[in-house]
UniProtKB/TrEMBL annotation:
Entry keywords, A to Z: Hydrolase, Membrane, Transmembrane, Transmembrane helix
Lineage of producing organism: Bacteria, Bacillati, Actinomycetota, Actinomycetes, Bifidobacteriales
Domain Prepilin type IV endopeptidase peptidase: 11-113
One of the record's GO cellular component terms: membrane
Protein name: Prepilin peptidase
Domain of life: Bacteria
Length: 147
């Protein structure tokens, strides 16, 4: 049951998504706590099976993806907030445990689902959406498709 290793990201990602939909705020303390717990879980698994490469890969992917989101947020500040960047940081740690295909699929799904949600929001007269659920749902789908 190696998928249970990703349980911290699942729990915190769900909580962040619900909180973002309700309040449009992503608590950074939740993200940091989830990241640390997920990293400790990955490291504990690596102690047992020697999969330290996966830990390094996951951390690198999470940092690179968060840096890309930061760059996009700087290019157009009203489009992405820092909560979206931090959610990407946490979700990237879980997605990063899979092969690179999962990361590419995650970004593809994030773009497609984000566009679909924005279209529905605009049809309903809203100007923006809570993006943390899009990030999390895309990451969850990518992990499930790569399992």
């Amino acid at each position: 049951m190696p998928y249970l290793v990703l349980l911290p990201s699942l729990i915190v990602g769900l909580a962040l998504s619900v909180h973002d939909m309700r309040s449009r705020v992503v608590p950074r303390s939740w993200v940091v706590s989830g990241y640390v717990i997920q990293l400790m879980t990955l490291m504990a698994r690596a102690c047992f099976d020697g999969s330290w490469g996966i830990v390094v890969q996951a951390v690198l992917i999470s940092v690179i993806c968060a840096a890309m989101q930061t760059l996009m947020a700087c290019i157009r500040p009203e489009a992405l907030g820092f909560g979206d960047v931090t959610t990407t940081f946490l979700t990237g740690l879980a997605v990063g445990t899979r092969e690179l295909f999962a990361t590419a699929l995650w970004w593809l799904l994030m773009g497609a689902l984000g566009c679909a949600c924005l279209l529905v929001a605009h049809l309903r007269g809203h100007r923006s959406i809570a993006f943390a659920p899009v990030i999390f749902a895309s990451g969850l789908t990518a992990v499930m498709c790569s399992a």
